[in-house]
Each structure stands twice: as C-alpha cells, then as structure tokens.
C-alpha cells in the first residue's frame, strides 16, 4: 500500500531560522515558502532523494501546529506516505477499526488527495497518506 | 550532503504489536527483528520506496529509547539520512558549531558508519547521518 515516504513534517518556531540551519549546515536547497491559511501555517520544503522535508511554522497559535509547539516544542510533527489509491486505503483502514482523522480524502495542493491517520491509531505517529494526481505520480 | 532518507526510527512499547499493526493495516513486509544489546533495543524494519521505517522496542528501561518512551510515549524517535562522506560531514558540522552527540563515526551494522546530531542542535529532531560501505551505497 505504501509507495514511498512523500515527506516528513517538522514543526518549527521560526521558518527562516530553521531553513537557514538546514541550508547552511546540511547543504539542502530550500524551496520558496508557502502560506496555507486554512491550516494556519507557513511551510518551506527541501528535497532529499525521493522524499522531502517540510519545515512548518504556525501563523496562528491556535492552529494544530501552534498547539503542538506549545505542548511538545520543536521537532518531528508528521510523516506522509504516498499511496496508489487513497479512497481504497481509507476504506480498508476504517473497516479494520484504525482511528482516522479524515475518513474521506481532503484535496490538497495541486490536486493531490490527503488524509490523516490519528496518532493514537498508529503508535504515536501522526501519519498522512497522499495520493498524487496522475501526472505527478 | 544528504542523499536520501535512509530510515525513520519509531519508538514502540511492544515490537510485535506495532509490527502487526503496520503489516495488517498498511500492508508492509516486516523484516526479521534484531537485538542490539549495547543499545538496549530490539528493532524490526519495513521498507518503503527507497527508505525504511525501523520499529524500535527497548529491552532495558534505562536505555535511551526506554527513557524516551517513559518521557514522551510511543512515536517518532529519529530520522537517518544517508551521506556520502560522514567524516567530512561531521568535521563541517563541528566547525559550524552544530551540537553533535557523536563527533566521530560509530561503526554500525554491516560496516556502515553512523553519528547523531543532537536534537537541540537540529530544531528538536534527533538526526542520524549514515555512510554505507561502498558495496551497499
């Protein structure tokens, strides 16, 4: 079901400071930051092999990432795996009784579909499943 | 400097329970568990694309992973990135003042070299760098 690690999401206090850390010390190329208003975040990513790391800064303290930072501090926030067929994956997980945040796919950037498994349902790891539009897959 | 995500390490209370969760619900193939006595852990991995996820159970409550579990509960523990030349990477990081757990490579399974950047030095993410022996790279 899982094709690859699509990205890791790291929660950071200050996107520019974290981006500079990774650019200067680990030699990565940081892409242009994007703001996602409905999630209350700004994010910038860098590619690593076939995957990426997304640095995520809350723009609002009460967004999910804002609350996460207050509670746990900076660090790993979620992992996203690419899947072939998200609706089928969600139906199967639901039937097996796995606790989901999203029972139906949400439409994300560029027409990709995404849904989260609840960390309680996945041994403490907030796990996103992503299905890419055909041209990108 | 970073070639790919080599693996993610998840801290789990019970390796068999976590392995069953990932095998049955996400369809992954779990490799044979291995015990690493000097780290006080048992671990089993599954491959995802060009990367892997390692499920890590402490065999001793005072091992680093045992302490982590008591403090934070199950979840993401560390990420490992493959690098070309670990000694050069560590020398550069040290020169730039990045806080390291290992200033020199440790030799891991199968002759690979590994070292950890301190999570304080990497925005809260325990980050391992791995250099593989030539035949595997």
From TrEMBL, chains A, B:
<dbReference type="InterPro" id="IPR037523">
    <property type="entry name" value="VOC_core"/>
</dbReference>
<feature type="domain" description="VOC">
    <location>
        <begin position="4"/>
        <end position="132"/>
    </location>
</feature>
<dbReference type="InterPro" id="IPR017515">
    <property type="entry name" value="MeMalonyl-CoA_epimerase"/>
</dbReference>
<dbReference type="InterPro" id="IPR051785">
    <property type="entry name" value="MMCE/EMCE_epimerase"/>
</dbReference>
<protein>
    <submittedName>
        <fullName>Methylmalonyl-CoA epimerase</fullName>
        <ecNumber>5.1.99.1</ecNumber>
    </submittedName>
</protein>
<keyword id="KW-0479">Metal-binding</keyword>
<dbReference type="GO" id="GO:0004493">
    <property type="term" value="F:methylmalonyl-CoA epimerase activity"/>
</dbReference>
<dbReference type="GO" id="GO:0046491">
    <property type="term" value="P:L-methylmalonyl-CoA metabolic process"/>
</dbReference>
<dbReference type="GO" id="GO:0046872">
    <property type="term" value="F:metal ion binding"/>
</dbReference>
<dbReference type="InterPro" id="IPR029068">
    <property type="entry name" value="Glyas_Bleomycin-R_OHBP_Dase"/>
</dbReference>
<comment type="similarity">
    <text>Belongs to the methylmalonyl-CoA epimerase family.</text>
</comment>
<dbReference type="Pfam" id="PF13669">
    <property type="entry name" value="Glyoxalase_4"/>
</dbReference>
<keyword id="KW-0413">Isomerase</keyword>
